[in-house]
Amino acid sequence: MSENFIPYTGYEPRTDEDMQQRADAFFKLMGKRRTIREFSGQTVSAKIIDQCIRTAGSAPSGANQQPWHFVVITDPKVKQEIRTAAEKEEREFYAGRAGDVWLDTLAPLGTDAEKPFLERAPVLIAIFEQKYRVESGGTRVKHYYSKESTGIATGLLITALHQAGLATLTHTPSPMNFLTQILDRPEGEKPFLLLVVGHPAAGVTVPDLSKKSLEEIRTNK
Ligand code: IYR
Asked: Among residues 76, 152, 163, 193, which one has the fewest Cβ atoms lying within 10 Å of its Cβ?
């Protein structure tokens, strides 16, 4: 075995009652998360974002290859460039590329090709999936389960930001290859999603959606 093994000290034994209480409290906290599409101009401290990205980076990953990269964007010029590029793609998406079935499915969310939040929100986090890395000699090293791993890390990031008191919007302009160019990312990295982060605009509204019940999403065997 090439890796050193050390004792695991992170486990804290708890009573069922304590675990139930913690599970209930966390369910309640996460139930307050909503995707919002209008942000206030209030800024966010870079230290908070960095700490939440550390949490994301603690995610499990295939062979511990940690196949993700987070680009934190606050420069208004870069945000503007991203908005322009995203809206160009989105206009084509909403004008027909999506197809009627997709557009009908999206209708309850009230989205359209206008993406003012890409400039208005104080922080954008572009998340990249590293499908492979290129070593200094030029050899490509494949990353295993990079999509699953990046998805898990993104889930932790959304959770960490919500827990810290921030609001997010998971934005997936399609296609979003423009992020590779604008953010100057290397070969092997694929844009995964664009997370818009900030504080909700005063009086923001959200669609009246509900989540599937436990009975709908869980089967016991
Ligand atoms: N990328 C588009 C469309 C869109 C698609 C899905 I699936 C959504 O849940 C929301 C939007 C946009 O961002 O408007």
From this structure: 76
